Amino acid sequence: MKQEVYDVVVIGSGIGGMSAASLLTHEGYRTLVVERLPQIGGRFSTVEYKGFKLPTGALEVEAMGLIAELYSEVGAGFEVRPLAKLCYRIGGEDVPMLYKGGLRALLLTASEDEEVTGRVMAALKRGMGWEEPSNSISFREWLSEYSSNEKVLGVFQGMIASFMGINAYELPAGEFIRWLKITRSYPAIYGHAPKGNLALMESLAKAMRAQGGEIWTRCETKQILVTDEVARGVVVQTDKDEMEIASRVVISNAGPQKTVELAGSENFDKGYLKQMKESLRPASSIMIHTVSDRPLLEHADSLILTEARRVNWIACPTEACPELAPPGKHLMVSYSTPAFNFPPYDFAQEIAWHLQDLKENIPRFGSEGDILAVNCFHGEWPAFRTWLGYDLPQKTPIENLYNVGDAVKPSGRTGLPASVASGRMVVEDVKSRIKPGEA
Predict the structure, then answer these.
(1) Is 415 exposed, middle or buried, given 0-12, 13-18 or 19+ CB atoms closer than 10 A?
(2) pLDDT higher than 70, residue 361
(3) Residue 352: in which H helix or E strand, if any?
(4) How confident is the model at residue 65 (pLDDT cuts 50, 70, 90)?
(5) Is residue 439 one of the residues assigned to a domain?
(6) Residue 42: count of CB within 10 angstroms of its CB
(7) Which of 6, 39, 135, 231 shows the smallest number of beta carbons within 10 Å?
(8) Beta strands in 51-146 (DSSP E)
(9) CA–CA gap between residue 198 and residue 46 (Å, rounded)
(10) Do 171 and 256 fall within a single domain?
(11) Residue 316 is assigned to a structural domain of this protein
(12) Using DSSP, how many helices (H) and how many strands (E) does the chain show?
């Protein structure tokens, strides 16, 4: 069997794996990324379909913060066009979300009551500045102590479902406060990649290769090699032959369950396996792509619904990035979250409710919109690998074997920045223990 030697092997080229790989390459580690698919990016990539560039999962990208900092640090180009206008629909009115002081305005619109708004804002302020609420209750349970107004509760339901992929009655209360602390520490300005998410990932790959890193696509990992409870490398299948790759560090972006499968469950202690089985709660979602000759959203290019059955977020990426569609065409992308994020799912019914929400909330959807594609995210390709507050640690019981991605994210983080944060945390641990060239 042909053999290769690297300092680090990264399994999977999602944003978590690529963030770790690019940072380690930047620090001088001989790093290899192995990806089973023909292109990189995982759930942060792009597919071409009938002239449209469609996301494989994540759509909007934070235009500043952890992702932009990563690209700057490793010398990768980062082209993201900010949204022109993000709105919340409350009582039929589209209310702009201001990046500073906007939450109070949203709550006042929803409650139409200064006292209720003040009470909720005071509770949030105490949670952030004094004592966070317990994770033993959901955020909706905690918030209901301060307001029973369904429109107020709906603002947070729309926000949580859009950014976290679960419902307000599923999110642990403390996790929301921690997320709010992080998002309020810098302007969370979102945007779209004009050439698609794949172009962003290829920019990261280009910077990595320029510094000596390697990325192999169409390369499936068959096994993580473990000897004496220490990771020693991987066995991969390329389009030509099977290869054994020795490395001091193995980083998996394939999800904890797949990592255990590849390394062999017999190499993990019972406590870790039990924690994985009991803790991880994948989040499912439905994404529908609708095509039209003119924009279907009239007052915003991104809209969070607060009173719909299922749909929580609608975006028109071609408003900022017409390059994502053929000339003269517009794309609308809508997301919905099941009422309860545990399988089994009735996706036929979920799609029907999603479409009904679009008909009721987008006046010209029925007459001018043509459905281009419907995607259901679940199973091995979920919206999120686990809910906030139900993550595993990045380190596994096997020495030098790490997980990165949205199943091992730090508390209070979600989406793409959470995966980037997990990658950076692993990199810092690797740097503290192993020097480049020690393989």
Answers:
(1) buried
(2) yes
(3) helix 347-361
(4) confident
(5) no
(6) 25
(7) 39
(8) 52-55, 61-62, 81-82, 86-90, 93-96
(9) 5
(10) no
(11) yes
(12) 14, 19
Tens of pLDDT, residues 301-323: 899 999 999 999 999 999 999 99
Boundary residue ending a domain (152, 183, 214) = 183
Mean pLDDT computed over 290-295 = 96
Structural domain span for residue 172 = 100-183
Q: Are 204 and 21 in contact (CB under 8 A)?
A: no
Q: What is the C-alpha to C-alpha distance for residues 3 and 148, in angstroms, rounded to an integer?
A: 63
Least confident segment among 1-10, 37-46, 387-396: 1-10
Rounded CA-CA distance 190/83 in Å is 6
Q: Are residues 372 and 314 in the same domain?
A: yes
Residues 369, 311 share a domain: yes
Identify the CATH number of the domain in which residue 178 sits.
1.10.405
* Confidence category of residue 439, pLDDT binned at 50, 70, 90: low
Residues 286 and 359 in one domain: yes
Residue 382 in domain = no
Note the pLDDT of residue 63: 85
**Residue 272 and residue 292 share a domain:** no
Please indicate, yes or no, whether residues 130 and 146 belong to a single structural domain of this protein.
yes
Mean pLDDT of 259-272: 97
Please tell me what DSSP assigns to residue 392: P
Would 438 be classed as within a structural domain?
no
Pairing mode, strands 311-315 and 330-336 = antiparallel
Has residue 1 got a pLDDT over 80?
A: no
Q: What 3-state DSSP class applies to 437?
A: coil
The domain that contains 231 carries what CATH number? 3.50.50.60
Radius of gyration of the chain (CA): 22
Q: Residue 413: pLDDT above 70? A: yes
CB 34 within 8 A of CB 262: no
Query: Of the candidates 88, 61, 82, 63, which has an alpha carbon nearest to the alpha carbon of residue 299?
Result: 88
Angle 72-76-80 from CA coordinates, rounded to 5°: 80
Q: How many domains does the chain have?
A: 3
Q: Are 20 and 27 in contact (CB under 8 A)?
A: no
Together in a domain, 199 and 249: yes
Confidence label for 189 from pLDDT (cuts 50, 70 and 90): confident
Say if pTM beats, i.e. exceeds, 0.90.
yes
